[in-house]
Amino acid sequence: MKAVKLVVSLFIIYAGIVFTFESLLGYFQPAGEGTLVITTTSADGTQNDRVVARLESEGRLYVAANHWPRAWYTRALENPSVQITLDGEKRDYHAVLVNGDEHDRVDDEHSLPVAFRIVTGFPPRYFVRLDPS
User: Fold this and answer.
1) CB of 38 within 8 A of CB of 83?
2) Is pTM, for the whole model, over 0.70?
3) Where are the domains of the chain?
4) What is the C-alpha to C-alpha distance for residues 32 and 2, in angstroms, rounded to an integer?
5) 17: Cβ–Cβ under 8 A, 6 or more apart, which residues?
6) Burial class of residue 53, CB neighbours in 10 A (0-12, 13-18, 19+)
7) Cα Rg for the chain, rounded, in angstroms?
8) Strand extents, DSSP E, the chain
9) pLDDT single digits (tens) 94-113
10) What is the dotted CATH code of the domain comprising 2-132?
11) pLDDT digits (tens, 9 = 90+) for 60-96
């Protein structure tokens, strides 16, 4: 019984760490040289901005849903007409879900450190290719 309580306690502590990390990351949205801002549009027409990591592979631009909160990703799939702000310039793009070999290639080229996967709670990773409109 003590072992079960210990495991449950450790799981609750771990879930709290993941929740705190993901919440703070979403709130502060740290931006830098390797990021861009994606503007997605909700079904009601509301536009939402999110800072995401910029990835490049074979001359193409990608972003990844690396976290549990991923409303921007869902909106991009529902309405693939997005805007990207990169280096201070805003342009129109078409978001394309990446699957199969292309997904595996981009994932291999831009693998995540184990420590990052741990603090984010091992979310599944999805990629979106951004094709200029």
Assistant:
1) yes
2) yes
3) 2-132
4) 46
5) 119
6) middle
7) 17
8) 35-41, 47-53, 55-57, 60-65, 81-86, 89-97, 126-132
9) 999 999 999 999 999 999 99
10) 2.30.110.10
11) 999 999 888 889 999 999 999 999 999 889 999 999 9
